[in-house]
């Protein structure tokens, strides 16, 4: 299998892949396609580790409508680097530019969603890993030395932004930015709750504050209060397991961004919303959540979802982050630490995003 993957395309590539649902990653030789007329080839320098990577390599979403892992699986969809080659019809990028690729590398470009710059909701969207590309080969993610991507699905990163702390914005950043914008939680003075203070949650705090919102972090861990308020700038901190605190906060929020990727009750969160409030779920638990309908009806409240953003909005998010100096709080790790990092991520032992230093530590076998 490895030999076949090495020979499919002309560009030799090297990365780390999972071979089965154990999720253990190890060195993997494969290949990338030649740079096409509309393609951008770039050297990968950093890649963030998203909780989705962990779900994927363990096939914890297997059999779902979302994604079913196939092996070898090279994860990574928070990918940043520097352009090394562009196709002759590429217009917006040039060799030497700092660029990034998020969760998708293709879409049909002709459906209603694509026409509205919502490629992320295209029925034929191609994920950065775990999809089958137009040439019938699997897509491989950014735990690798190079990427070749259609320029439409590549964002330009401003020179002022540090690549390592920018990488998680390509998934975690846009995943919180998009619902804040779409559900109109981006207005000064609005009270927004952020459930969970992990990779997504800390980004929700930063973007909501940059929009001028009043922000409450909602967490099961009382020991995160100092971090949330004094380091990240949240206005309030709410312990969701404290009935008195929850009661005091009943009906105080216009919106809540729920980032938790583990099964958890929704009723306590719904109670925090004002009439007409919106609970937006962006975490992806591996088991269905129970949705109580009666409190929704009595408060004309909404439970909704949101998934990343289209390419236009992703570039908008990056430019907004550059303007407001928004970056992810990261722990940079070498490539050979990745399996330990996955174990720590499973235990939520990271503040708040692991980023692999591909450029300096990925060594070809």
Automatic annotation (TrEMBL):
Keywords, alphabetical: Metal-binding, Oxidoreductase, Zinc
Alphabetical list of InterPro entries matching this protein: ADH-like_C (IPR013149), ADH-like_N (IPR013154), ADH_Zn_CS (IPR002328), CAD-like (IPR047109), ER (IPR020843), GroES-like_sf (IPR011032), NAD(P)-bd_dom_sf (IPR036291)
Gene Ontology BP terms: lignin biosynthetic process
GO molecular function, one term: cinnamyl-alcohol dehydrogenase activity
SMART domains given in the database record: PKS_ER
Highest taxon of source: Eukaryota
Boundaries of every Enoyl reductase (ER) domain copy: 23-356
Identification of the protein by name: Probable mannitol dehydrogenase
Cofactor needs: Zn(2+)
Family stated for the protein in its record: Belongs to the zinc-containing alcohol dehydrogenase family.
One Pfam family named in its UniProt record: ADH_N
Record flagged with keyword Transcription regulation: no
């Amino acid at each position: 299998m490895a030999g076949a993957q090495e020979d499919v395309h002309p560009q030799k590539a090297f990365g780390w892949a999972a071979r089965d649902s154990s999720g253990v990653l190890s060195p993997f030789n494969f290949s990338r396609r030649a740079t096409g007329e509309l393609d951008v080839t770039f050297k990968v320098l950093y890649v963030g580790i998203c909780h989705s990577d962990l779900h994927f390599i363990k096939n914890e979403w297997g059999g779902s409508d979302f994604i079913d892992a196939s092996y070898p699986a090279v994860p990574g969809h928070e990918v940043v680097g520097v352009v090394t080659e562009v196709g002759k019809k590429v217009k917006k990028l040039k060799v030497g530019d700092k660029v990034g690729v998020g969760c998708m590398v293709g879409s049909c470009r002709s459906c209603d969603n694509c026409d509205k710059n919502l490629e992320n909701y295209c029925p034929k969207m191609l994920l950065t890993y775990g999809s089958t590309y137009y040439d019938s080969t699997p897509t491989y993610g950014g735990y690798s030395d190079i990427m070749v991507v259609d320029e439409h699905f590549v964002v330009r990163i401003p020179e002022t932004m540090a690549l390592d702390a920018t990488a998680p914005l390509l998934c975690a950043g846009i995943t919180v930015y998009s619902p804040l914008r779409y559900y109109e939680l981006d207005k000064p003075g609005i009270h927004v709750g952020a459930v969970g203070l992990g990779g997504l949650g800390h980004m929700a705090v930063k973007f909501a504050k940059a929009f001028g919102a009043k922000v409450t972090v909602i967490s099961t861990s009382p020991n995160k209060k100092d971090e949330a308020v004094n380091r990240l700038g949240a206005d309030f901190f709410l312990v969701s397991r404290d009935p008195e605190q929850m009661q005091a906060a009943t009906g105080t929020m216009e919106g809540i961004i729920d980032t938790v990727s583990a099964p958890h009750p929704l009723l306590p969160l719904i109670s925090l919303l004002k009439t007409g409030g919106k609970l937006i779920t962006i975490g992806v638990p591996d088991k269905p959540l129970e949705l109580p309908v009666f409190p929704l009806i009595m408060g004309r409240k909404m439970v909704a979802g949101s998934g990343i953003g289209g390419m236009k909005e992703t570039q908008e998010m990056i430019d907004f982050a550059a303007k407001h100096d928004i970056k992810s709080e990261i722990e940079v790790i070498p490539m050979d630490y990745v399996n330990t990092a996955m174990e720590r991520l499973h235990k939520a032992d990271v503040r708040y995003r692991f980023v692999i230093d591909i450029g300096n530590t990925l060594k070809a076998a």
